Amino acid sequence: KVADSGKAVVCTIHQPSQKVFAQFTDVLLLKKGGTQLYFGPLHSKTGNPDFGGLKKYFGRLGFKCPKFRNVADWMLDVVGAGYTSTTIVDFPRAWEKSKLHKKLHKHL
Predict the structure, then answer these.
(1) Is the pTM above the cut of 0.70?
(2) pLDDT at 78
């Protein structure tokens, strides 16, 4: 109800279920120490809870979410925070070079 009234809602979640994760519109993803890895839409512009915004961004970096995989778990593994992580990508640098980062920075 608070978000529907036009007010921003900020919260921290740790290892959310996919059902809870789907309720968000935007996500700020930080790594240990507070370095920003991503900030942007969680879903596609269709309005459906499809995680398309997050999948599109990480897809451009070479990571595709497997079908039927919990997107929240997949994202944690991709950025190196999950149990099965094997990533070697410098995500803070990738974020700083991204079009989405530049667009957001210009907007602010």
Answers:
(1) yes
(2) 86
What distance, in Å, lies between the first and last C-alpha atoms of the chain? 27
Q: Which of 95, 6, 67, 85 is nearest to 25 (CA)?
A: 6
CA–CA distance, 18 with 5 (Å, rounded to integer): 25
Place of tokens 């959310």: 16
Across the strands, what pairs with 28? 39
At 15-73, the pLDDT tens digits run 788 888 898 889 988 887 888 999 999 999 887 889 999 999 999 999 999 999 989 88
Cα Rg of the chain (Å, integer): 14
Kindly report the three-state secondary structure assignment for every residue of the chain: CCHHHCCCCCCCCCCCCHHHHCCCCEEEEECCCCCEEEEEECCCCCCCCCCHHHHHHHHHCCCCCCCCCCHHHHHHHHHCCCCCCCCCCCHHHHHHHCHHHHHHHHHC
